[in-house]
Amino acid sequence: MYNREKWKIIVAFLAPGLLLYSLFNVYPSIQGIIISLYRWSGLSGNMTFIGLENFATLWREFTDPIDFYNVRLYLAHNVFLFFFGLATIVLGLIAAAIINEKPWGFQFFRVTFFFPNVLAVPATAMLWSMTLNPIFGLVNTTLRAIGLDQFALSWLSLQYQWPLFKIGLYMVGFIGIWGGIGWFMLLFLAAIQNIPRELVEAAVIDGADRAQVFWSITIPLIWETIRTVLVFQVIGALSGFALPYVLFDRVSQKHADMVLSYYYWQAFQANNWGYAAAIVVVIFAITFVLTLTSYRFLNRESVQY
User: Fold this and answer.
1) Neighbouring C-beta atoms of residue 27, cutoff 10 Å
2) 18 — alpha (psi -120 to 50), left (phi > 0) or beta?
3) 3-state SS string for 120-152
4) DSSP 8-31
5) Exposed/middle/buried for 238, CB within 10 Å: 0-12, 13-18, 19+?
6) Which residues in 165-204 are b (16+ Cβ under 10 Å) and which e?
7) 3-state secondary structure of 45
């Protein structure tokens, strides 16, 4: 009787959240899978069932080397920026380790690193579009003022080639690092501060330097946080839309678009909602598989303290 009453209370508390989640997440997701099997403009009730044709079209575009909207190029952009995300995690971890030592001005730097997370993505894009403006931007103005005119480049250019990709895509990655370090720093700092001080002091007494303490004590004891962050980074590997969309004046750009940019173009400009839904379904499937794989790969025995 007691267990039955307990389950009634649990269900009563969970039901509203599950209902809202099902209504606004599960149901639209199922509808998206259904729409991917149709040809639909999104502007009328006329939907033509075409089976897996949308997925076959996506496969052809993926394997067609001369198609303008080359899905492989967009996926390459996502993978390229994923490595910038990994760099952001590493830098956030280093920043957290340094701030945990409470050097001079650590409170100022903690607030400064986290400040970009207060800004919305469109605001961040507008801020950097002005900062990197080739004519009046702060970066080029500073370089010219100190006599380094040869380095005053068109930073957001999608014509100027750097190794592998255009310079504008590198700027998207650097802006992502600028905006993400503070959040990762905060997560890692909270985990590091939960480590018992006695463990660190004992290691120091035994002759361990800071690097050894970091690798042998800090990393193992905050591994659960590191794994969670890495898994979420994998989940977000195929996302990314707002920053390049605003940064490059809301125009489709082959040399800067992500996979979700192609989805947006198909849905809202080409009015090809069936094909757009197929793109999202494939992205979900790939993300799901990568998430499970990374979770298993990063799994290790937890260190208790």
Assistant:
1) 11
2) alpha
3) CHHHHHHHHHHHCCCCCCHHHHHHHHCCCHHHC
4) HHHHHHHHHHHHHHIIIIIHHHHH
5) buried
6) bbbbbbbbbebbbebbbbbbbbbbbebbeebeeeebeebe
7) coil
Q: For the chain, what's the residue count?
A: 305
Q: Which helix (H) or strand (E) holds 111?
A: helix 106-114
Q: What is the pTM of this model?
A: 0.85
What average pLDDT score do residues 291-301 get? Answer: 79
Contacts with 37 (C-beta within 8 Å, 6 or more apart), sequence order: 49, 50, 51, 52, 54, 274
Q: Please name the residues in contact with 148: beta carbons below 8 A apart, sequence gap of 6 or more.
A: none
What are 86-138's pLDDT values in tens digits? 999 999 999 998 888 888 877 888 888 888 888 888 888 889 989 988 888 88
Residue carrying the six token digits 């370090």: 181
Separation CA 236–CA 226 (nearest Å): 15
At residue 302, the 3 state secondary structure works out as coil
CA–CA separation, 305 and 303 (whole Å): 7
Of 283, 288, 249, give the one whose Cα is nearest residue 266.
283
